[in-house]
Amino acid sequence: MVSGKLVKYMMEESYSSIPIHVKQALKEALTDIIACTIAGTKTNVFEIVRKFSRSQWGAGASSILMSSYKLSASGAVLVNATSANALDMDDGHRLVKGHPGAIVFPAVFAAAEEYNISGEEFLTSLLIAYEVGIRAGILAHHLRSEYHCTGSWGAIGAAAGVGRVIGLSEGEMHHALGIAEYQSTYSPMMRCIEKPSMLKDGIGWGSMTGISSAYLAKEGFTGIPSLFEMEEAHAYLQEFGQVYRTEELYYKPYACCRWAQPGIEALRELIEKYNLSKENVEKITIYTFTESASLSRCYPKNTEEAQYNLTFPVAAYLYAGEVGPDQVLNELENPEILKIMDKMEVYGSEECNREFPKKALSRIEIVDSEGNLYASRIHQAKGDYDYPLTSTEKRQKFTSLVAPILGAARCDDLFECIQNVENLKNIRHLSELINLGGIKHERTPN
User: Last residue of a domain, which of 363, 380, 397?
Assistant: First the structure.
C-alpha cells in the first residue's frame, strides 16, 4: 500500500491550515494557469481538440473554458489541458523539467465542477495535486534516465488531486496513483523538441489519464504500486505537509520554451544598457546549455515550431520588445524577425551546462553595425522562485493574456474572484465567470 505518510497527507491536507505564504503561492499558480488556459483558446490546437472531444465524449457537467458547452470530465480535461499549454506560457518546476499546472489544474477543476465542491475544497485538492505531481516528477526523472514528457509524472499528481475531490478511500487512492503511472505517456521528450508538433509535452493526454485513473479506481479498477513505494521516495515522503514545493514554481514571461528565455533576458540587458535596436545589430551569438542549443533555429511554420525554437523568440524580442501570443501566432512570417534570425549563431557553454536543470542559463554577445562588441553577463530565466517575477509583473501577465479576450472589466472581476476563491460555495461560480460571453450557441454534435 501507499506509504502511510503520503496517505495521511492526501487525506488530511487542508487549505485552511496551511501557512499564509503557501496560500499565496497556490493562488499565484491558479491565477497564472487560468490566464494561460484562456489565452490558449485562441490557438489552432485548441479548436482541433475541442472538436475532437465533442465528437468523442458525451455532454456532462465539466466546462470547456471559454465555451458554453460542457462535457464529461475526461473530455473537458483533454481540451482544457491542451489549451493550458498551447502557448507554452504555463508554470513549471525546474527539477521536473516540465509543467505541473497545465496537467493538474484542468483535472481537479473538471472533477470539482462535476462534484459541486466549494472553492476551499477545490484549493485543497489543487494543492495536493501540485505537491504529489512535482515529487512524482522528481522521482520519475531520478528513476528513469531518459528525458520524458510532463504527461508521465503529471498524471500522478492529477490522480491524487482528483482522488481527494471524489473521495477515494486509502486503498482506492493507492490504485489511482498506480493506474496513472502505468497508463501515462512516457514519451521521449527530446524527439518532440527536435520535431515540434501539437503533441508537445504530452500534457493533454496526461491530464486525461490522471482524472480517468481516479475515476477508474473508484469503480474498483486496480493498479500497480506507484513509484512512491520505492526506496528512493522515502525522503520525499517525509516532506509532505512540511515542505511545499508549489512555492518553487516558476512563471514564464514569454510564450516560448523555458530554455530560450535566459537568452531573451541577456538580450534585454544589452538593449537597455547600450540602447541597441534591430537597426544597429549586425550579429548575435548565444552561449547556452546543451538542451537549449538543441532547440530549432529554422524559420517556424506554425506556433509549436515558434515555441520550441531558440532564435525565433530572441529575434522576436529584438523586433517587438515582447514574445507573447501575438508573436508566436501572428508574426511567424515577419521578414524583419526572420532577417534577425539569420544574424544569430549558437554555441554550447559548459558553464551553463553545470547548472542545468536547477537553473536555465545563457549569455549573449552582440556586434553592432560599426563593429563594436557588447557582451552580457550570464542570465537566468526570469520567473524562477529564486529570481521571481514581481507581483506587478504577474498581474501584468494575467491582464495581457486575459483582457484582450474577456475585456478589461471582466478581466479585473476574474482576478478578484481568484484571489477570493476559497469563499465560493460552489466552484462553478468561477467557471461561470470565465465562460460568460464565451463561445455561444454551440450545437451538440450528432
Answer: 380
SS3 403: helix
Beta carbons of 271 and 303 less than 8 angstroms apart = no
Long-range contacts of residues 385-391, Cβ cutoff 8 Å, at least 24 apart: 385/247, 385/248, 385/249, 385/250, 388/251, 389/251, 389/253
Give the end of a domain, one of 380, 402, 424: 380
Q: What pLDDT is stored for residue 3 in this prediction?
A: 62
154 pLDDT more than 80: yes
Q: Average the pLDDT over 99-122 and give the result.
A: 98
In angstroms, rounded to a whole number, what is the distance separating the alpha carbons of residues 118 and 428? 9
The pLDDT of residue 1 is 52
Rounded CA gap, 197 and 17, in Å?
42
Note the pLDDT tens digit of each residue in 234-264.
989 999 999 999 999 999 999 999 999 999 9
- Assess whether 141 and 121 both reside in one domain: yes
State whether 142 and 239 are in the same domain: yes
Q: Are 251 and 364 in contact (CB under 8 A)?
A: no
Count how many domains the chain has.
2
pLDDT of 444 = 42
Tens digits of residue pLDDT in 392-404: 999 999 999 999 9
- Indicate if 272 and 162 belong to the same structural domain: no
Do 228 and 79 belong together in one domain? yes
* Residue 89 domain boundaries: 4-248
Decide if 241 is inside a domain: yes
- 8 Å CB contact between 129 and 107: yes
- Examine the domain organization and report whether 108 and 227 are in the same domain: yes
Mean pLDDT, range 24-51, rounded to an integer: 97
The whole-model pTM stands at: 0.94
Q: Name the packing angle between helices 4-12 and 170-183 (round to 10°).
A: 100
Which residue is listed with cell 473521495?
A: 167
